[in-house]
Amino acid sequence: MPTKLDEILANTALQVNTRKATADYTTLEQKAAAHTPRGFVAALRTAAASGPAIISEIKKASPSKGLIRADFHPATLARMFEAAGAAALSVLTDESFFQGSLEHLEAASAAVRIPCLRKDFMVDRFQMLEARASGADAILLIVAAHTDETLSDLRDEARRMGLDILCEVHDREELNRAEQLGFNLIGVNSRDLRTFTVHPELVTELAQWKTTNAMMVAESGIGTAADIAKYRAAGYEAFLVGEALMRQPDPAAALAMLLNSEYSVGI
Predict the structure, then answer these.
(1) Tens of pLDDT, residues 50-61
(2) Does 59 qualify as catalytic in the annotation?
(3) What is the DSSP secondary-structure string of 72-140?
(4) Where is the Indole-3-glycerol phosphate synthase domain (predicted)?
């Protein structure tokens, strides 16, 4: 039986093919050339040298939770998160399942100096061109969505485009594959993309199997300063936080509290 991830990937492939058929490649290439990537991994490493490096996620909705934030203004949120201490941003661009868009990414990226990740289901080289043209400095590659051959192909294209890569894994086998393919930024997502359930214990379990010097990012289910302290103790340096911030009346204040170990943010 097809999983939710299978459904999303099939839909993404159809949407990408449609955009490719109607794309103005000259304009996209000009916009991509005009954007100089700001160094996503470097920004995380700099922030992690003095504390937790937070990737604040700009996300309007999700397949499992529906609408998360109705008052949604990407540029405003981006500026707020930067001012509150985010090391980088993650911006959802999937339209069908997350109510995101490339316009959200472009608006957020233009509003800040910190680097931005295009958070989407990347299945085609064309999406790398779209990403840089829209102001992205990094893209997401999900190991579960690819064979080693397609992962390598997309990795090489992202690097050719000057984009950093957050490689996402969900189990030990995927972690091994990511390491063998030379990814230097590996995210452990505790949310099972086949069922969208969260298994927080997975984050600490996988940390013990790391064998390279790749920087590790904890993803999903992070809502308190205590969560961050626990994962830092396990070896994580960066933390992607979305829903816990986006549900707050003042997301920037919530981020500031999350960065302060004396406080916590409720999910």
Answers:
(1) 999 999 999 999
(2) yes
(3) --HHHHHHHHHHHT-SEEEEE--STTT---HHHHHHHHHH-SS-EEEES---STHHHHHHHHTT-SEEE
(4) 5-256
